[in-house]
Specification:
Blueprint (H helix, E strand, L loop, with lengths): L5 E2 L4 H10 L4 E3 L5 H6 L9 E3 L9 E3 L5 E4 L4 H6 L1 H6 L1 H9 L3 H6 L2 H7 L7 H6 L3 E6 L2 E6 H4 E3 L2 E2 L6 E7 L7 E9 L10 E9 L5 E9 L6 E2 L1 H7 L6 H10 L14 H23 L3
Parallel strand pairs: 1-3, 2-3
Antiparallel strand pairs: 4-5, 5-10, 6-7, 6-10, 8-9, 11-12, 12-13, 13-14
Helix pairs in contact: 10-11, 11-12
The structure holds flavin-adenine dinucleotide (FAD).
């Protein structure tokens, strides 16, 4: 048993052996959730911290030959907001990162921290659901991959085990027939330094006649985790989307919402806003899927 309180691995192998050898070690990346929560009295700072900012294997975005993208856990929101690969292909993800906090927050806040903090209002959650992302994890015992849809299990909870380090998010290729557009929109009371009251992400694939051949929709901040809006998707898949169908399908998304009252909004208000946000996200995704 190692008797230290601060660890700073230089690479992934060191990080894995520190996690295996030091009980109760907590990971810190940008610290914008962990340290801010401690300073504001929400949770004490953990007694043993492992700062991962020097672990080079967690840095960078890498496209694979099949058209997918591996986003290292230390990628910041600022990186996602400006990466050409993300803005052009996985646009909903850059929409979401561009909304996080302020430029200072986006400069240090990481993808790994946003995912592992597991807030129901996490900005990246709904985009990662519509892109059917998976999460790569490493521990002293080895490596594994978990679908994002089963990784976040509740507010502040994930299926990660003690000693797991998230190494990356992997986005599968979006290649296929037709044209794809995606978008993430959130309802907020002010334009910066805000948390989503309700958020929605949409991804649509249209054929050459503008018929919707695939669609995925997800909701933020209206359930214990971000959730897919299955009824909305079923109503739109295979259809040519006119304004009436769009309105009905957006309304159906409330079936997937189970919001709570909190300091930022009542459950009723959140439920009422779900169709509005879903309609706006779908409209923007449809616009982006159409030829310029
Ligand atoms: C002013 C301000 C505004 C904000 N606005 C928003 C917003 O609009 N939307 C939003 O979604 N969030 C927002 N946040 C929250 C925060 O910035 C993001 O969630 C950010 O992505 C967290 O990343 P981090 O690297 O700072 O995480 P950290 O604070 O370092 O870590 C967060 C949690 O994840 C764990 N962790 C971190 N990295 C890993 C890893 N690789 N493997 C395993 N566990 C890990 C830590 O142990 C901790 O439990 C805001 C925060 C602040 C301070």
């Amino acid at each position: 048993m190692i008797d230290r309180t601060y660890f700073e691995p230089a690479d992934l192998e060191q990080a894995r052996s520190m996690l295996a050898g030091a009980e109760g070690l907590r990971i810190v990346a940008g610290g914008t959730d962990l340290v801010v929560a401690a300073r504001s009295g929400k949770a004490p700072l953990p007694e043993r911290l492992m700062a991962i900012h020097r672990v080079k294997e967690l840095i960078g975005l890498d496209s694979d030959a099949g058209g997918g993208l591996r986003i290292g856990a230390l990628t910041t929101h600022g990186d996602l907001e400006t990466s050409a690969a993300v803005t052009q292909t996985w646009t909903a993800l850059s929409d979401a990162s561009a909304l996080v906090g302020s430029p200072a927050t986006r400069h240090v806040g990481t993808v790994g921290g946003n995912v592992c903090n597991a807030s129901p209002a996490m900005e990246l959650g709904s985009p990662l659901l519509v892109f059917e992302a998976s999460i790569e994890l490493a521990s002293g015992g080895g490596f594994r991959s978990v679908p994002f849809s089963s990784f976040v299990t509740g507010p502040g909870r994930t299926s990660a085990q003690p000693g797991d380090l998230m190494t990356a998010v992997v986005l599968p290729p979006l290649q296929g027939p037709g044209r794809v557009g995606s978008a993430y929109i959130r309802l907020e009371y002010r334009l910066a330094m805000e948390i989503a009251i309700v958020g929605a992400a949409a991804m649509v694939r249209l054929d050459e006649t503008d018929r919707c051949i695939d669609v995925r929709v997800a909701l933020t901040a209206v359930a214990p985790t971000c959730v897919r809006a299955a009824q909305t998707e079923e109503m739109l898949r295979g259809e040519t989307i006119d304004p009436g169908l769009l309105e009905r399908a957006a309304s159906a998304a409330t079936a997937s919402a189970s919001p709570i009252d909190d300091v930022r909004a009542s459950a009723d208000y959140r439920r009422a806003m779900v169709p509005v946000l879903v309609r706006r996200a779908l409209t923007r995704a449809l616009d982006r899927a159409k030829p310029n």
